[in-house]
Amino acid sequence: MSTSVHALRDKWLFSYLPLLTADMVSNEYGNDWELASQEKTVRLDWVATVEELWSTVNSLPKIQSMPVGSTFILSRDGKEASFEKFPDGSRVVVNLHKSPATDFGLELIFAAVMGETIAEEIGATVCDVIRLAARPNKDFSELVRVEVWLNDAAYSGKVSAHIRTLFEDRQITPNLFHISENPFDGNKEKKAVKPAEAAREETKEEPEAAPAAPAAAVEEEVPQEAEEEAPQEAEEQPN
Question: What segment(s) does the record annotate as region Disordered (predicted)?
Answer without folding.
Answer: 178-239
